[in-house]
Design goal:
The structure is a homodimer. By secondary structure, chain A is α/β, with parallel strands linked by helices. The first copy, chain A, has helices at residues 19-30, 80-92, 115-118, 134-150, 168-182, 214-227, 261-270, 288-291, 322-337, and strands at residues 9-14, 35-42, 50-53, 56-59, 61-62, 73-76, 96-99, 128-130, 152-160, 233-237, 247-255, 274-276, 297-305, 311-318. In chain A, the strands form three sheets. Chain A has a six-stranded parallel beta sheet with strand order 5-2-1-6-7-8, with helices on both faces. A six-stranded mixed beta sheet of chain A has the order 10-9-11-14-13-12. In chain A, helix 4 packs parallel to helix 6.
Chain lengths: 338, 338
């Protein structure tokens, strides 16, 4: 199913007022996506508010099943439940949906796409294309060039995830808790069950049988699907840290063929969308703060892991709202209209 | 070299005014260590200040080479350089030094001790006993019972370390930077080269050849020495997070014999000094905030890692100033006088 080629497109954002939705508006503008008209949809609560796009204030409209007539591309930034409810209507109305929720990611017929990694799978879409989980998107960007060169056998990934991955309310909660602690007020936990300020916490949706959180399961499954290789073995531990934006990942990999750190750095540097920032002697490696608002995935701390014959440690940092969400979705749209 | 058994001991703390030194004073008091007299030594800058011990204010004295006459036990909480300078004088004066710095840890003749793990090595000391790096201490507490039951072949550890591991100045810096950000003031970086507030940073002492930081190298080497098994393969990635106190570790292990999560939890629960807090359905797992001031090392999120035949993931959290430093040092002293 191909998108009809046009000079410009009628684009809609479902969930436009959330942190990812707002970032999508910004990325469409920044990248000069050929937008004929932009439609912003959100819940009734947010309807009537405005967002600026290309110098104009656009009014957010209530998302209903009937809004999709004449829309070419829908960027989905809602919850999984809302995406399940509305995406089929968008497709029926003739739009292509690029969905940032987890609703369709693991459906075999739905391409799960990071354009630099598996853009070729886009052509098989049937109206819905899934955008990966934020942690997975930055991970596969670092894995792909190494996998192509040396075949990755196993990945052990541990994350340091910022609160913007949970949403605006979580960012407010980190700010409010921090302010409360600094002024000797009571700390309130509303979004997260535990205090996130000056603490490290885990998502509370662990599977009672395996103990893995949904985020961990997503990383494990989505990595294999995007890399197109079910033989890659992956395990993950995900943790939320008191950082507003950008995720860090400590990544340990084992490859079939030996890769020395310098070879890995060279491969990563050549890969589109990856920047190597790795000069320990000059204190150069990426921190979450460094990459806020950046499109690239940054890789540093490339080290040989001598505990196995062909091991490497990597430190992968990306803006979870850019490559981890809005940027990747817009890149998919760009690939579709190319 | 055995410590002469007495009813009570003349104990000195070198570096008494730092965060670890002050915690040593508190731990000696709490555990009712048989102290005949406590001597507090620090740099000239801190001399003259007082610390409370058993209801009395003790005056901190300037540390010199001549202060050790008549002292039975010296607890060292100075930098490695100062320990190298003064420990030999303490030993010459007849004291046993339990040193928290890294000065002597890897010297073959110096026992590096976590009492629950390798207390038996204490008997071979020649006047100096080394206390491990904070991250290593809590790690080996979790590894030991699993190693005894199933032989650990490989460990991949990623840390989330609190700023108190760097010292009081770093705690002040996190507080000041946070306050500055919340009040729109300029952020100053004095202790760390990068902003630590709302960020994740790496120690700036990476080896230019391997890229490993000193902390990472310590974890790798000290783990093998304390576990008494050079065959255990270890790799480490250490990161500083904006948390005041307690370190978290994401630990991936591979064992020779299969251990199911329930078996691992049972083994860990039976091990002295370890508390298993692992009930995901009830949101139970340790966070740094939960374990501040706690003596035990907490283990949660015990999960089977299906990416290898015999893999486990663990989440290990400990108070870096207690088991990671002051408590372990006092426990060594307790073992010496037993």
């Amino acid at each position: 199913m191909a998108l009809q080629k046009k000079k410009s497109y009628r684009v809609a954002i479902m969930g436009a007022t959330g942190v990812v939705g707002q970032e999508m508006v910004a990325v469409l503008e920044e990248r000069e996506f050929p937008v004929e008209e932009l439609f912003l949809f959100a819940s009734e609560r947010s309807a009537g508010s405005t967002l600026s796009f290309n110098g104009k204030d656009l009014v957010v409209q209530k998302l209903t099943e009937e809004v999709f007539n004449g829309i070419d591309i829908v960027l989905g930034a809602t919850s999984s439940d809302l995406s399940k409810k509305f995406s089929a209507h968008a497709v029926k109305a003739g739009a292509v949906v690029i969905d940032n929720s987890s609703a369709f990611r693991m459906e075999p017929a739905v391409p799960l796409v990071v354009p630099e990694v598996n853009g070729h799978t886009l052509k098989n879409h049937r109206g819905i294309i899934a955008n990966p989980n934020c942690s997975t998107a930055q991970l596969v960007m670092a894995l792909k060039p190494l996998h192509d060169a040396a075949r990755i056998k196993r990945v052990v990934v541990t994350t340091y995830q910022s609160v913007s991955g949970t949403g605006k309310e979580a960012m407010d909660e980190l700010m409010e808790q921090t302010r409360a602690l600094l002024t000797f007020q009571e700390v309130k936990c509303t979004v997260y069950p535990q205090q996130i300020a000056f603490n490290c916490i885990v998502n509370w949706d662990a599977d009672p049988d395996t103990g893995y959180t949904e985020e961990e399961t997503k990383i494990i499954n989505e990595t294999k699907k995007i890399m197109g290789d079910e033989a890659i073995r992956v395990t993950a531990t995900t943790t939320r840290v008191p950082v507003f934006r950008s995720h860090c990942e400590s990544v340990n990999i084992e490859t079939e063929k030996k890769l020395l750190p310098n070879e890995a750095r060279a491969l990563l540097s050549e890969f589109p969308g990856v920047i190597v920032m790795d000069d320990p002697g000059r204190k150069l490696y990426p921190t979450p703060l460094d990459v806020v608002g950046q499109d690239a995935v940054y890789v540093g701390r490339v080290r040989e892991d001598r505990s196995v014959p062909n091991g490497l440690n990597l430190w992968v940092v990306g803006d979870n709202l850019r490559k981890g969400a809005a940027l990747n979705a817009v890149q998919i749209a760009e690939a579709l209209i190319r």
